[in-house]
Every structure is written in C-alpha cells, then in structure tokens.
Design a protein that fits this description.
This protein is an alpha/beta fold. It is built from 14 helices and 12 strands. The strands form 3 sheets. Strands 4-3-5-6-7 form a 5-stranded parallel sheet, sandwiched between helices. The structure holds 5-amino-5-deoxy-1-O-phosphono-D-mannitol. It catalyses: D-fructose 6-phosphate + L-glutamine = D-glucosamine 6-phosphate + L-glutamate.
Length: 360
C-alpha cells in the first residue's frame, strides 16, 4: 500500500535512497574501483564498437542519459525511440550492441525494436526491472535495475536506477574495450555509493513544494539542460505534462535560441538544470529567457554561480558530474508532484495513460 503517503508517486520518489542502494548492492566497490554488474554470458564487451539504445518515454530519457555517458567515455552510442526504429534503424553488425531499456519489459514498441535488431544480427541486452519479462527472454543479456515494484503510472524510481545502471554499464564497456580503467572511476563509484545519502538529504531539504506553488498559474513550463542534463530536462517536462496536464517542454539549452525562445514570456517559468557540463553556456541561455521576462529556477548545487541570477533555486547535493543529473531529476519529480497536487490531479493514474503500453 501507500502507507503514510497520499500517492504512490510520492512514495516511490521517496524510496529512491533504497532503490538506488539496491541497484548498486554488491555491484560496485569504490575502494578497489570494481564494477561487477552481472555474470554476462558474453563475459566481455571488447568486441563491441557501438551501442544503440531503444526505448520509449521515460525509459528513452534514461537511454539518452546512458548514450551520452557512453559517448563521454569514447564509445560511439545513440539512443533511439523504439517506435521510430522500424522506419529509421541505423546500420547494425555483430559489433553492435542493441540495448532495450524498459522498466516493464513488456512495451510493444520496444520489444519490436529489440526483435528486429536481433534478427539483423546485433548483440542484444535489456535493462529492465522485471525478472522473466518478455524483453529479458528475447535479449541475449539482462541487466536488472532492482528498483522494486513501481505502481504509479509516472515512472520515477525506475528512471534513476536505469540511468545509474547505464552509467555503470558505460564504464564497464569502455574498460573492456580499452583494457584500461579510467582514473576518475573511483570518484564516480564513491559518488554512486553515497547517492542514497545524497537523495535523502535532497528529499529532506527540497523547496520543490514552494516553487510549485509560486509558479502554479503559469502558461507553460520549460526545462533546459546540456549533456546529461539535456535528458533530465526532457524527463522533467514529460513528468510535468503527464501528471499536471499543463504544457511543458524540454529543450537542449543551446537550442533555446534556435526557435523555442519565441515562446518565452513572463508566464513561462524556465527550469535550468546544471550538471557541470558547460554550465556557463546554460547560464547564458537561461539569462536570455530571463531577459524576456521568464522566471528562472536553477537546479544546481549550493554556491553555484547560477544562483546569483536565478529567481529560485532547487538545491542538489555536490556529487560526481556524471551523476548530478540523477539528483536534479529527483527535484523535478517533486516539482511535478506538488504542481499536480495543487491542481488536484489524480497523479497515480493520469488520464489516457497506462503503466504498460502493450500496443503499437
Ligand atoms: O515499461 P517501459 O519502461 O518500457 O515503459 C516505457 C514508457 O511507456 C514509460 O517510460 C512511460 O513513458 C512512463 N510511465 C512515463 O512516466
């Protein structure tokens, strides 16, 4: 049941310290720098030249997080919408790993893409929350995210576990490929190890409820970010529209000036996600929106330069740059939740949506 919580969504947001702890349990050792994900049947990823992700919705945003993390460590990777895959699949060969990211393991679009990749000769894997799901039966390998059951239609704790697992997978693939462990691995693993504590702190101190209330009568809500923060901006907007029924959109920070800026007014608050990747540029982009009257809410660590210009601040504890997006996402989950509460939305079962989408 929901226990002390009004909604499963809030319960599941609040469970993230535990779900993340479960996800990494026994899989990382910050002291030795070891990442031990699973006994993958294939043993090693040294023969993999490219990783393609296929996924839908929130899982697609986690996939984008993963593909960005792979590109950052020098492995060529793309994230593709599973429902576009059949019409626009990039070329595949036996050095391509196709990873289906799917919480349920039952999403029809994602299963189709996975099956067609397997038929075209790719190596396949699924990153899923459900042991024995169809995706896990179809794929050569399964990486479980161990988030525990998620009841709310809005995916929350499964996103953070997916994104974290994909970051670890990225490091593992890179290490198998180059035979070298990156020198920054220890700091990443230390940050992963203290992620449950960081989320706990964030949940205790979050100003999300008052931010949601301050901007409750706005016309539209925009979210921007760069690099890993871009996928978080997209996810922030999806969550917001899904449960509040308000217009929300996510953009790459640098894209704002290429069109979306025309939508910006004093009635369109802009959430700017700062994850340590070219933050000064994102800050400039946010300032351009602010000049047009949009209130800017900076999602960033305390002491960040964005706080000086921002109208509001949602604090994320200091962490490794590769994982900062996970913390920013928790703040955005809370903002959506509180905004939807103020509007009296059903939250756990938004209209027109289903938890598992088993039709094409
Ligand atoms: O089970 P899956 O991860 O494959 O589901 C994919 C999407 O339908 C899902 O992530 C959806 O976007 C979320 N429930 C939205 O919060």
């Amino acid at each position: 049941g929901k226990g002390e919580y009004d909604h499963f969504m809030l319960k599941e947001i609040s469970e993230q310290p535990t779900s993340i702890a479960q996800a990494i349990e026994g899989r990382i050792d910050p002291r030795s720098g070891t990442i031990d994900l699973e006994r993958f049947e294939r043993g090693t990823f040294e023969d993999i030249d490219e990783v393609q992700f296929v996924a839908c919705g929130t899982s697609y945003h986690a996939a984008l997080y993963g593909s960005t993390a792979l590109n950052q460590v020098g492995i060529s990777s793309t994230a593709l919408l599973a429902n576009e895959y059949s019409v626009a699949a990039p070329p595949i060969d036996d050095s391509t790993l196709v990873v289906a990211v799917t919480q349920s393991g039952e999403t029809a679009d994602t299963l189709n893409a996975l099956r067609s990749a397997a038929a075209a000769g790719a190596k396949t894997m699924t990153v899923t929350n459900v042991i024995g799901s169809t995706a896990s039966r179809v794929a050569d390998e399964t990486l479980l995210i161990r988030a525990g059951p998620e009841i709310g239609v809005a995916a929350t704790k499964t996103f953070s576990s997916q994104a974290l697992m994909l970051v670890l997978l990225a490091r593992r693939v890179a290490a198998d490929q180059t035979g070298e462990v990156r020198t920054d691995r220890r700091s990443l693993l230390e940050a992963a190890d203290s992620m449950p504590e960081s989320i706990e702190t964030l949940l205790e101190q979050s100003q999300a409820a008052s931010v949601a209330s301050r901007y409750r009568d706005s016309q539209a809500y925009f979210f921007i970010g760069r690099g890993l923060g871009y996928s978080v901006a997209l996810e922030g907007a999806l969550k917001f529209k899904e449960i509040t029924y308000e217009h929300a959109e996510g953009f790459a920070s640098g894209e704002l000036k290429h069109g979306p800026l025309a939508l910006v007014t004093p009635e369109t608050p802009l959430f700017a996600v700062f994850t340590g990747t070219e933050d000064e540029k994102t800050l400039k982009n946010a300032a351009e929106a602010q000049t047009r009257g949009a209130p800017v809410i900076a999602v960033c660590p305390p002491g960040h330069e964005a706080i000086e210009i921002a109208d509001d601040h949602l604090a994320i504890p200091e962490t490794d740059a590769t994982l900062a997006g996970l913390l920013a996402n928790v703040q955005l989950q809370l903002v959506s939740y509180y905004a939807a509460t103020l509007l009296d939305r059903p939250i756990d079962k938004p209209r027109n949506l289903a938890k598992s989408v088993t039709v094409e």
